């Protein structure tokens, strides 16, 4: 049986040096992953100590990202009830949409860097 973690315990872990999140009723200690997160550590810090299910599902994480998250599972969130929406299946995503979610922010940051270099 997985370790049962109360919301009160989850909510204590909110700093970069000790951060837990809950996704789909499971609790993850992502402290060692936060600096590697492709979306930046701010994305994880924003939901530290909280149920991040909606945010995680809204982003549309790939199957690979879900596999990485599973490596950090430490238990189950006590009293968590599934919302009416089911976890998004990355296999159902149309080709090209996943890569666009990666390329758009990269291109945007490159444009900002170029403008800053030329005009600042």
Strand proportion, as a percent range, falls in: 15-25%
- Helical residue percent? 40-55%
Q: Spatial order of the strands in the main sheet? A: 1-5-4-3-2
Q: Give the overall silhouette.
A: elongated
Number of helices: 5
Largest sheet: 5 strands, mixed
Q: Taking Cα atoms only, what radius of gyration do you get, to the nearest Å? A: 17 Å
The SSE order reads EHEEEHHHEH
Distance between the termini: 58 Å
List low-confidence stretches: 84-88
Structural class: alpha+beta
Give the averaged pLDDT, no decimals: 84
The total beta strand count reads 5
Description:
The N and C termini lie far apart (58 Å). By secondary structure, the chain is of the alpha+beta class. It is elongated and about 55 Å long. The protein has helices spanning 7-10, 41-46, 53-59, 63-70, 97-119, and strands spanning 4-5, 14-15, 18-23, 26-29, 73-77. It is 40% helix and 16% strand. The model is unreliable at 84-88 (pLDDT under 50). Strands 1-5-4-3-2 form a five-stranded mixed sheet.
Summarize the entry for a quick read.
The chain is built from 5 helices and 5 strands; from the N terminus they run βαβββαααβα. By secondary structure, the protein is of the alpha+beta class.
Keywords:
120 residues; alpha+beta; 5-stranded mixed beta sheet
